[in-house]
């Protein structure tokens, strides 16, 4: 059933008529697999974890999100193994990760040389273990899903930017996918 939202537009002379904008109806559905059917890999994509933004001035960026926009801003965390300092900004349904170079060999330093004002660096999507039902029982595949993702993606000719997963800012294994294989977007997959 579709619902219609009526929006009254304020105008001193009434130049704007009432707008009627349809509100999409969300429908959920489920499917079940037969007792012996398993489709696809043992991992799948989860929700968006964060959008990472490279910033030339971390303190200025923290102050902007906290003082101007009123966001919950975390503390600066140095990650020398990744060559960055990070700050997470809580957005309610997801997070923003502010990235700043840590050292001269930082990949973020190179990004900021090309993009002086900073900008979106990558997105992070959670990688989840799939659960299958067999004869009414839930079976949890005890597989390191980030490694399952790596193997599956390599079979699909998607390049991984490191030989193995590294521990990311949340203390969980992460991998990065080559942006040329992902529509121009650097994609980070984080195991959950």
From TrEMBL:
<dbReference type="InterPro" id="IPR051785">
    <property type="entry name" value="MMCE/EMCE_epimerase"/>
</dbReference>
<dbReference type="GO" id="GO:0046491">
    <property type="term" value="P:L-methylmalonyl-CoA metabolic process"/>
</dbReference>
<dbReference type="GO" id="GO:0005739">
    <property type="term" value="C:mitochondrion"/>
</dbReference>
<dbReference type="GO" id="GO:0004493">
    <property type="term" value="F:methylmalonyl-CoA epimerase activity"/>
</dbReference>
<protein>
    <recommendedName>
        <fullName>Methylmalonyl-CoA epimerase, mitochondrial</fullName>
        <ecNumber>5.1.99.1</ecNumber>
    </recommendedName>
</protein>
<feature type="domain" description="VOC">
    <location>
        <begin position="47"/>
        <end position="192"/>
    </location>
</feature>
<comment type="function">
    <text>Methylmalonyl-CoA epimerase involved in propionyl-CoA metabolism.</text>
</comment>
<dbReference type="InterPro" id="IPR017515">
    <property type="entry name" value="MeMalonyl-CoA_epimerase"/>
</dbReference>
<comment type="similarity">
    <text>Belongs to the methylmalonyl-CoA epimerase family.</text>
</comment>
<dbReference type="InterPro" id="IPR029068">
    <property type="entry name" value="Glyas_Bleomycin-R_OHBP_Dase"/>
</dbReference>
<dbReference type="GO" id="GO:0046872">
    <property type="term" value="F:metal ion binding"/>
</dbReference>
<keyword id="KW-0170">Cobalt</keyword>
<keyword id="KW-0413">Isomerase</keyword>
<keyword id="KW-0479">Metal-binding</keyword>
<dbReference type="InterPro" id="IPR037523">
    <property type="entry name" value="VOC_core"/>
</dbReference>
<dbReference type="Pfam" id="PF13669">
    <property type="entry name" value="Glyoxalase_4"/>
</dbReference>
């Amino acid at each position: 059933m579709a619902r219609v939202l009526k929006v009254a537009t304020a105008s001193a002379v009434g130049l704007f008529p009432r707008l009627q904008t349809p509100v999409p109806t969300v429908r959920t559905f489920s499917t079940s697999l037969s007792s012996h059917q398993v489709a696809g890999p043992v991992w799948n994509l989860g929700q968006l974890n964060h959008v990472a933004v490279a910033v030339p001035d971390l303190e200025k960026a923290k102050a902007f999100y906290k003082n101007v926009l009123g966001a919950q801003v975390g503390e600066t965390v140095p990650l020398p193994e990744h060559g960055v300092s990070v700050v997470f900004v809580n957005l309610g349904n997801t997070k923003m990760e502010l990235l700043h170079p840590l050292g001269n060999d930082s990949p973020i330093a190179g990004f900021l040389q090309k993009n002086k004002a900073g900008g979106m660096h990558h997105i992070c999507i959670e990688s989840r273990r799939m659960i299958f039902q067999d004869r009414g029982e839930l079976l949890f595949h005890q597989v390191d899903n980030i490694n399952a993702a790596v193997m599956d993606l390599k079979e699909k000719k998607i390049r991984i930017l490191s030989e193995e997963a590294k521990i990311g800012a949340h203390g969980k294994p992460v991998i990065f996918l080559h942006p040329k294989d992902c529509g121009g977007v650097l994609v980070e997959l984080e195991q959950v």
